[in-house]
Amino acid sequence: MLNHIGVHVRNFDASRVFYDVVLATLGGRRLLESPTQVGYGTNTPDFWLYPLSGADEGVEVHIAFTAPDRATVWAFHDAAVAAGAEVLHAPRIWPEYHPNYFGAFVRDPDGNNVEAVCHEPE
């Protein structure tokens, strides 16, 4: 049901580099870009970054990206670690959500909680 999400980031350059690497593991890439925004997606831009302006400190956002399989969740995790992300939760099953919920959680350069999740059985 998610159509798109936009996140304001403190370090626009660092966030673009981070999401270039991490979203590539999920088939995502930069599709639209200007000095004030960048849109990522596979076919259409559905994940947007905007530089934070003024004194606004922003708030943590939780973003979950769909992965087609568990290997892709691992690839997302490994790419995030290589890009310097803090690991919140390494890839594993989260049975409290459902028996096939396999996810990994990391912090992006602005402290947002970013997840890759696969809902398919192994």
Automatic annotation (TrEMBL):
InterPro entries, per database record: Glyas_Bleomycin-R_OHBP_Dase, Glyas_Fos-R_dOase_dom, VOC_core
Ranges for domain VOC: 1-119
Top-rank taxon, per record: Bacteria
A Pfam family this chain is assigned to: Glyoxalase
Entry's Gene Ontology molecular function annotations: lyase activity
PROSITE patterns: VOC (PS51819)
Native source species: Salinispora arenicola
Protein name per the record: Glyoxalase
Keywords: Lyase
